[in-house]
Amino acid sequence: MKRAVSALWARRAVRQAYLYTTTTTATSSSPEVGASASEAWDGRFRLHKPRGQHLLTNPRVLDAIALRAAISPGDAVLEVGPGTGNLTARLLASHAARVAAVEIDPRMVEAVTARAAALGLADKLTVIAGDTVEVEFPEFDVCVANIPYGISSPLIAKLLFGPYRFRTATLLLQKEFARRLVATSGDGEYNRLAANVRLVADVRLLMDVSKRDFVPMPRVDSSLVEIRPRGIAPGVDVSEWLAFTRVCFGQKNKTLGAIFKQKRMVTELFGQSQRGEGCAAGPSLGALDGDSGEDDCGGNDDGRNRVVGFSEEEVAAFKERVAGALDTAELAGKRPSKVSNDELKRLLRLFNERGVRFH
Ligand SMILES: C[S@@+](CC[C@H](N)C(=O)[O-])C[C@H]1O[C@@H](n2cnc3c(N)ncnc32)[C@H](O)[C@@H]1O
């Protein structure tokens, strides 16, 4: 299954990234990575907010991120969105053997390349010019990044469900997104993003970062989060799990019993289970997040969802099978936000045993 999901990612890597391997031009061998002057933004070009170009300029926070990233001697580090290199400078000065940084803006590519050269650390840095969501990453042990928040969900999906094997990802994320990511089923805030990520990884909050530590100042605060892949098979088909959680968390204020009792839901699931068909686009790996499934497979009944060639009795029998799985799991009266991944996995297994499939 992992291979099928990886293949999806491989197909997405259609845009060829071009590699810049920086060349050493400076003679200095003792980089001044802690110097606050190097973090300041000199305004040499316009920063684009839609690209998430909020530079982290507080040296104490930058030092803390590099420290919390737990880089071991010899590690290969992946950074996403190095910008002018405020964090990159610290990663280059760490025990890491090498750093690969993916940057979409050619002006930033130039800036971080020049920064590494000025520090005398250019030979440790490879800048990959391209879109993080599209390019193929080189092998890495740890990912450390202050990312553009707009790609949080597709980046985490790519890291966790792509072909990569790594120890940790230490990411600075929008605070609200980070809170949803670390939510647990016990606190009643559980959500689709957390359920999908926790299927394959452990997550924890490391620290909060004020919006005042960035230039230009964003509207939101941030939080540093560690994602640690478990490295063991999740015990479910990942594509089916992603489709299943889309349905379960699609109407988060309803109980699972109410969600799976809806006629259009039963009809849609019946159609999928009979035909073995899914959404035309297949599972959306780019969207681990989003609790509204209204527009997706379980959504409107505009005629596509009608099951042709089956009697009312057959649909009614299927409905009984759906209800039977929920009863056996003892989850009909529970809201998805209160249900653990183990319970959800068991429910999916019970559905599958009764011929109920999610695509
Ligand atoms: C929040 S800034 C972080 C800059 C730097 N890491 C820092 O901490 O100061 C995000 C950076 O990601 C880059 N970026 C935005 N979208 C990107 C994408 N899809 N792929 C790669 N880089 C991207 C922006 O150009 C910008 O340099």
Could you please describe the fold and organization of this structure?
With 359 residues, the protein is of the alpha/beta class. It has two domains: 184 residues, Vaccinia Virus protein VP39 (Rossmann fold, 3-Layer(aba) Sandwich), CATH 3.40.50.150; 91 residues, Helicase, Ruva Protein, domain 3 (Orthogonal Bundle). 36% of the residues lie in helices and 15% in strands. The strands form two sheets. Strands 1-5-4-3-6-7-10-8 form an eight-stranded mixed β-sheet, with helices on both faces. The chain has a two-stranded antiparallel ribbon with strand order 2-9. The longest helix has 18 residues. The structure holds S-adenosylmethionine. It is an enzyme of class 2 (transferase). InterPro entries: KsgA/Erm, rRNA_Ade_Mease_Trfase_CS, rRNA_Ade_methylase_Trfase_N, rRNA_adenine_dimethylase, SAM-dependent_MTases_sf. Keywords: Methyltransferase, RNA-binding, rRNA processing, S-adenosyl-L-methionine, Transferase.
N-to-C series of helices and strands: HEEHEHEHEEHEHHEEEHHHHH
Helix/strand-derived class?
A: alpha/beta
Note the overall shape: elongated
Share of β-strand residues: 5-15%
**Largest beta-sheet details:** 8 strands, mixed
CATH class of the largest domain: Alpha Beta
